Amino acid sequence: MAKYSSITDIAKALGLSPSTVSRALNDHYSISGKTKERVWNYAKETGFQKNLNAANLLHGKSKVIGVLVPEATSHFFATLISGTRNGLAGSGYDLIILESNESYEQEVRNLRYLCSMRVDGILYAPSVATTDFSHLDLVQKNKIPFVNIDREVQGFHCCKVLLDDGYGARLAVEHLIQRGARRIAHLAGPKEVTNAAQRLQAYKDVLQEHHIPFDSALVAFSDFRMPSSAPAISRLFDQKPEAIFCVNDETALGCMAEARKRKLKVPDDVLVVGFDDEIYSQYFNPGLTTVHSPIDQMAQMAVKKCLRLIQDFDAVVVERMVLQPELIIRKSSLRKKN
């Protein structure tokens, strides 16, 4: 267990009162230069560090914002965290980043921990497994500035910064139809996750608008990740689709791998479109057509809203801010029309 040197330790060693040591460390005018020098030298020798958490809480602020996300290894959430950090630059606030690892139980523990740390604000994206949001009552009871990002918590009154997932999916499916595809499969995300559900609904809506019958055999569900989505991808390929719209770029990469395994060519034999425009998608062979998510902008907007809530909680209007994605067309969907 770590044993940090404290103001009390310095006071005992130097025969001073703790209040004198505290004022000396803060360069208070009432303390002589000789005493300050003694205190500073001893503090340096013993590796003394101010307890910023205690000092900040004394003034009613922790100067820390908590970020609770499902995971931090994917490009999407890593970029979201990086954008949050950039948005806080120069604000005087630090970050605590916690991952739920897509576990409801871990998410509940993490949220309680952030509350116990008296963080000044929380940015939050729920796990795949979270369907009961009663643990968020703790946030409301303590009036903690709170911003819901990416995966929407429906029915919870708070500021939200989201992506128009339905519009993004519509762009993808419309594009595949324009390229001549009719038998279009969808590798969907978990049914319980709002943004995945919105993408699935948009897929169905666009098919209906173009008088293409919906076939449930052309829909398979994934957990957003590879290789766990491989069985679902294999089932879709068994249906011999002309095109596949994937819930994200990671599973789109899995579809391209399955095509190669079956000696099919992308885009000659099957078109593939992803979602998110992760950094590596342009380097696929062929390059992946995908829906670009403005992740950094989402993070920056969430930070600004959180800081405004911290500054004046009651004066900030609760908003649901929705960002527009765009379609990035690359070779994976550019087979010549029939």
From TrEMBL:
Superkingdom classification of source: Bacteria
PROSITE patterns: HTH_LACI_2 (PS50932)
Keyword Magnesium included in the entry's annotation: no
One MF annotation (Gene Ontology) recorded for this entry: transcription cis-regulatory region binding
CDD domains recorded: HTH_LacI (cd01392), PBP1_LacI_sugar_binding-like (cd06267)
Domain HTH lacI-type: 5-59
Alphabetical UniProt keywords: DNA-binding, Transcription, Transcription regulation
The protein, known as: HTH lacI-type domain-containing protein
Native source species: Sediminicola luteus
